[in-house]
Design goal:
11 helices, Rossmann fold, alpha/beta, single chain, globular
Length: about 280
Amino acid sequence: MGWQIYILRFYFKSVSLFVPKFAGLKAFKLFQKVRIKTIRKREEGFYKEVHHFTVSSSKEDLLCYEIGSQNKNLVFLLHGWESNAGSLSKFAFQLSKNNFRVISFDLPGHGKYKSNYTNLAECGEAFTKVIEYIKPSKPFSVISHSFGSAVCTYTLSKLNYKLDKLVFLTSPNSIFEIFKDFKNMIGLSNDSFTYFVQKANLLANEEIKNINVDAKLKLIDFSKLLLIHDEHDKIIPIKNSEEIKKMNTENTQLIKYSKIGHYKMLWNDKVVEDTMSFFKE
């Protein structure tokens, strides 16, 4: 455990004793902070080669990107937490070569936005705005990584679109479990955690306990889902994808890899190959 965590635990344990509401709201603010905004060298090429456009939004205009012909089958890409659209560039370029139209965007708080705070509800609203701007005329597909998979299901479960294929390159399942892990990591008291969850419920306009990827998928009209997960993923354990598959057995496939990394998997040739084979079925 790093020294920063020790300081956080001391702070939140102390503050929780005297002002639990303040500690809970302060913790939720910290939970929303995007720490990493650096664009890696291998991601930079994506931004140089794709078409840039913006979609109007109340907080900051959304930074969006397109590659491929407009008359091709449509695929949206959703990157993970503390990442950017360029992280999925290997998939974007391969899809465009195979006659797909690819639309991607930097989630709020990520990439080159001024703000470095965001949450599931705000990212869901952003994805909704991008979809409505594009106005898909036929079923489309989505490839998402990590937190992006939660954004995908949270958003599409609220919209009335017919989907073709979904690919989750790792996915969390229970958002509430992520909250509890954060609570335990920083030493937040139960009373403070109550205020933390209340704030999250208010932003999401629903109980966080009900936001499970496996359950939200039941509300989405899609043809097939491919789950790809590293058996040794320490950031999001593979049990999450196993739970999702268990609840969606008829049209879901889970491919397990070994030691390909949570982020590095996005640059793995076999992962890209399996994804493209899934799209060509």
